[in-house]
Design a protein that fits this description.
By secondary structure, the protein is mainly α. It has a domain of 34 residues. The protein contains three helices and two strands. It has a two-stranded antiparallel sheet. The protein is elongated.
């Protein structure tokens, strides 16, 4: 399908002043762009779109219960602690 674009009309709507040479140049450029878009319709579209570029099934691991750190071990690694609680700096003013 060869589309014809009225560049003069579009320029008028956009309140642009184009010379005759610019109008012809833009006319051919826009028709070329539409030609490329028409070529896309020739591509086979029978495949499902991919949500990810790579399959994620190989990157997932089994969710199993394992051994975790004790509360004392976690507190020992904290920069500041009090009564088995980790102390953090205040981040909200007037709270």
């Amino acid at each position: 399908m060869k589309a014809k674009i009225d560049v003069s009309y579009i320029a008028q709507l956009a309140q642009l002043e184009l010379s005759e040479q610019q109008t012809e140049l833009f006319q051919s450029q826009l028709e070329s762009i539409l030609g490329f878009i028409d070529k896309l319709s020739e591509l086979p579209m029978d495949q499902e779109p991919a949500a990810h570029g790579q399959r994620l099934s190989a990157s997932l691991r089994q969710d199993v219960v394992g051994q975790s750190l004790s509360a004392e071990a976690v507190i020992a690694n904290a920069p500041a602690a009090q009564d088995l609680l980790i102390k953090v700096p205040k981040v909200v003013a007037d709270a």
